[in-house]
Each structure stands twice: as structure tokens, then as C-alpha cells.
């Protein structure tokens, strides 16, 4: 259950490196108990540096940060004991069984054996791995390993779970199953702080989010609020033969306030896609295909951060 209690309180947070890079440049945000909070941004935006500071594994360079009421620099060990961390790359031990991975990890937190075994049984069920409990991890699929990584991060019943790109590399079926598990955690009152490159994932999971660019926060709010603020209600996607696209795009300029031209399609941002499509036909423009869809968080993200590839 969400409350107004603030579990992560970052104010004018800064992270600089010896190279002189200012990866995080004075950001302020709060994460409340029981909510799923997203940190979005292109590569190099500062989201990973932010997550490492919250995880108490990278020192703060400036500003203030409180996690679970503690100062990461002074109380790092105590704070880390109450966190669950899901790294981008799975780090489960492939030489052990599924069950052994959970049992051994619980010992790292000094938990009583009875509590570890009880928690292991609960988490195997949660991750839908009960039937695979005594198999070697090396035999698991990528989706199963990811679910095991998340289950392992929950062994100490953490107050906050930090997830770095939780579904990267998974097929659609595995992604959706993982979304179900994360949604269940949120329903159970677990606080989630996650980064993701998947905008549909952010829309599905996040109650609130920030979008970072160049180390700064450039937008903050709920997914619905951000879509309403930075995009239109609908988007009309038109596809044309390559030889006709530029001419068609020229005829469509001014039809809506924003027209984006890509190598394979033309996007028109509009309040009413069907009316806009009728106006397209009135201009004697005939696309190969036409699709009216609602605006998404991806439209917002690309509007705010641009469409240039960032390595």
C-alpha cells in the first residue's frame, strides 16, 4: 500500500568522477513507500550513477541523499541490509541448484535458518520455480534465471527493491510474466525503484517516474501526466513507398502542429486520428497503410531527449 512516507530523499544530488565527468547534476526526487518509481534516460543520462548512489555502492559527490532514513556514506551497511538489488546482468551461481542459490544468499544477511528455508519456499512459489527447485541453474532459460535473480533479491524481505533494466534480453512471454511478478510485489506494498529502456514497461509498472538527460531531470510525473503534458491524445502513423515518402510528407506539413518524418513512416500528432486521416485523404495523399494509436511514453521520451542514437 502506498503511503506518504518518503524512503528515498535526494536533494540537489551530484555525482562526479575523477575524469571530471559530472554524471548526475543536481537532481531532486523522492520515492514513497509502496510505489514503483522509474528512472528513465538514454545511455549516459546519469540513471545508473543515480541508482548506485541509492544502493550505497557509490559515494555522493554533492547534495544530500537519505535512503530509509540513513545517510549512505555513514550508514551504508545498515541501509544495504534492507535493500534488494537486481543487477542488469544475472549473477546467480550456475554451479548450484535453484534452491541452493536462495538458501546461501539468505546466509549473507545473517538470517536464521528457519527463516531462510521458509522464505525460500515462498519465493520459489512466487517466481514459479518450485518445480525446478532442485535443478542446476545452468539448465534454466533466461527468463527463469531472471525470475530467480529477483527472488534472490527478496530473500531478506527488503524495504526497497532496486531493479536495473529488469527485462532486458527477455522474449515477450518472459517479459510479461516478469511484469506480473513485479506487479504482485507492488500490490503487496513493496517499494520498487527501477531503470528501463522499455517505455511500455515503464507505463505498465511505474506510478511515477523521472526522465533524465545529461545528468539532469527534464521531466517528472505519472506516465499519464507526462503523455498529456508533452504529447497529443493520438498519433497517426502513415507508411508510403520509399520513392513517395518525401513528397507525401511535404504535402502533410501544417496539417497538425507536429509532423515527424522517418525512413519508414510519417507520424502526425493529433487530438483525433480519424479526423486527421480524413484530412490526409482530402489532400490527395494515399498511404500504403494508416494506423491510429494513442500516444505513449515513448513519444514523450523521444520528444524530450531527441532521436539521435546515443552509444
From TrEMBL:
Keyword entries, A-Z: Antibiotic resistance, ATP-binding, Cell membrane, Membrane, Nucleotide-binding, Translocase, Transport
Compartments, record wording: Cell membrane
Residue intervals of the ABC transporter domain: 8-239
Membrane topology (UniProt): Peripheral membrane protein
PROSITE patterns reported for this sequence: ABC_TRANSPORTER_1, ABC_TRANSPORTER_2
Primary residence: membrane
InterPro entries assigned: AAA+_ATPase, ABC_transporter-like_ATP-bd, ABC_transporter-like_CS, ABC_transporter_ATP-binding, P-loop_NTPase
Gene Ontology BP terms: response to antibiotic
Pfam families: ABC_tran
Domain of life according to the entry: Bacteria
Gene Ontology MF annotations: ATP binding; ATP hydrolysis activity
Ranges annotated as spanning the membrane: none
Any one GO CC term of the record: plasma membrane
Entry's family note: Belongs to the ABC transporter superfamily.
PANTHER family: ABC TRANSPORTER ATP-BINDING PROTEIN (PTHR42711), ABC TRANSPORTER ATP-BINDING PROTEIN NATA (PTHR42711:SF5)
Protein name: ABC transporter ATP-binding protein
Gene source species: Dactylosporangium aurantiacum
Amino acid at each position: 500500500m502506498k503511503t506518504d512516507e518518503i524512503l528515498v530523499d535526494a536533494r540537489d544530488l551530484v555525482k562526479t568522477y575523477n575524469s571530471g565527468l559530472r554524471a548526475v547534476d543536481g537532481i531532486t526526487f523522492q520515492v514513497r513507500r509502496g510505489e514503483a518509481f522509474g528512472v528513465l534516460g538514454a545511455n549516459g543520462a546519469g540513471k545508473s550513477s543515480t541508482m548506485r548512489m541509492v544502493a550505497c555502492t557509490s559515494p555522493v559527490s554533492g547534495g544530500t541523499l537519505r535512503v530509509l532514513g540513513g545517510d549512505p556514506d555513514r550508514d551504508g551497511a545498515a541501509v544495504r541490509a534492507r535493500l534488494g538489488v537486481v543487477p542488469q546482468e544475472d549473477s546467480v551461481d550456475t554451479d548450484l541448484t535453484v534452491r541452493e542459490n536462495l538458501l546461501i544468499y539468505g546466509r549473507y544477511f545473517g538470517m536464521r535458518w528457519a527463516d531462510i528455508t521458509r522464505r525460500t519456499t515462498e519465493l520459489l512459489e512466487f517466481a514459479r520455480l518450485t518445480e525446478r527447485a532442485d535443478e542446476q541453474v545452468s539448465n534454466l532459460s533466461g527468463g527463469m534465471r531472471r525470475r530467480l535473480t529477483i527472488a534472490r533479491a527478496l530473500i531478506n524481505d527488503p524495504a526497497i527493491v532496486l531493479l536495473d533494466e529488469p527485462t532486458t534480453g527477455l522474449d515477450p512471454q518472459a517479459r510479461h510474466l516478469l511484469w506480473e511478478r513485479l506487479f504482485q510485489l507492488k500490490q503487496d506494498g513493496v517499494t520498487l525503484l527501477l531503470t528501463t529502456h522499455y517505455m511500455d514497461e515503464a507505463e505498465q509498472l511505474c506510478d511515477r517516474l523521472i526522465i533524465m538527460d545529461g545528468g539532469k531531470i527534464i521531466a517528472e510525473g505519472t506516465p499519464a501526466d507526462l503523455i498529456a503534458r508533452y504529447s497529443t491524445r493520438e498519433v497517426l502513423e502513415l507508411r508510403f513507398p520509399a520513392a513517395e515518402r518525401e513528397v507525401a510528407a511535404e504535402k502533410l506539413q501544417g496539417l497538425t502542429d507536429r509532423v515527424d518524418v522517418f525512413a519508414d513512416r510519417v507520424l502526425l500528432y493529433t487530438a483525433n486520428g480519424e479526423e486527421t486521416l480524413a484530412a490526409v485523404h482530402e489532400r490527395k495523399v494515399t498511404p500504403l497503410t494508416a494506423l491510429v494509436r494513442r500516444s505513449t511514453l515513448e513519444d514523450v521520451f523521444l520528444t524530450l531527449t531527441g532521436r539521435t542514437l546515443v552509444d
